[in-house]
Amino acid sequence: MEKRKNLFMVSLVLSLVIFGLFVLSKRGGNGSLKREFDGLEVSPTYSSYYLQKKDIFETTETSYVDKIFVGDSITDHGEFHEFFPDQVILNRGISKDTSAGVLNRIHEVVGRNAKEVYLLIGVNDIRTKVEQAVYIDNIRKIIDTFANSKSEIYIQSILPVNNSIYGNKVTNDKVILFNTALKQTAKELNVHFLDLFPSFIDQNGQLKKEYTLDGIHLNGKGYKAWTDLVSGTHTTSK
């Protein structure tokens, strides 16, 4: 009797295994099943680098800040504290960031109560074909977040690119259109507009080669030119 019971259990298990294999074969095998499970996973909106940097920013407790630079890789790569050695400087650049990414993390910047905040964002919005209206709406929301802050806000124009080096993923015609909208937005929101663009273009309307290696990011001379313009912001008006 016991032997028959054992045989029945073995037979039942084998039947279930065979049935399972049959179902998998009809649905495309293990790979298909894995793809179905993978399809249920929510794709991350932000890169691991973005999330890591955001977490680090939010963990630090620096106060009495003079200047905060906010932006994408062009900001991220800058050693701004070396250009302003007598001031407390924070770099809040994250490589590949967009206006939406900055909006998602801007509360940490607001909470620092810095004397001055310099925002440079937009080239990745252009590169990833974000509509200008969406971009400007994000900029408005970023600035609105500072409504109760005493920080002086500087919206900086998007820098030109050098298409002969970088290619045509971003055109300067598009940059100019975005910058025109940025300038108007800064005026409407009563914040400073720091127009970097004219100081960085050559006679052909391209990012000066002496300021870049890859056609979009800045080298040492480029950062020196940028920070020199920032140093003169006390003379700019809203």
Report on this structure:
This protein has helices spanning 2-26, 29-40, 48-59, 73-76, 80-83, 99-110, 123-127, 132-144, 163-166, 172-189, 197-200, 220-231, and strands spanning 67-71, 89-93, 116-120, 152-156, 192-194. The relative contact order is 0.10. The longest helix has 25 residues, at 2-26. The chain has twelve helices and five strands. Helix 8 (132-144) packs parallel to helix 10.
List the helices and strands and how they pair.
Layout: H1 2-26, H2 29-40, H3 48-59, E1 67-71, H4 73-76, H5 80-83, E2 89-93, H6 99-110, E3 116-120, H7 123-127, H8 132-144, E4 152-156, H9 163-166, H10 172-189, E5 192-194, H11 197-200, H12 220-231
Parallel strand pairs: 1-2, 1-3, 3-4, 4-5
What is the number of helical segments per DSSP (H or I, 4+ residues)? Answer: 12
Label the overall shape: globular
Order of helices and strands: HHHEHHEHEHHEHHEHH
The major beta sheet can be summarized as: 5 strands, parallel
Task: Put the structure in a nutshell.
The protein has helices at residues 2-26, 29-40, 48-59, 73-76, 80-83, 99-110, 123-127, 132-144, 163-166, 172-189, 197-200, 220-231; strands spanning 67-71, 89-93, 116-120, 152-156, 192-194. With 238 residues, it is α/β, with parallel strands linked by helices.
Features:
alpha/beta; globular; single chain; 238 residues
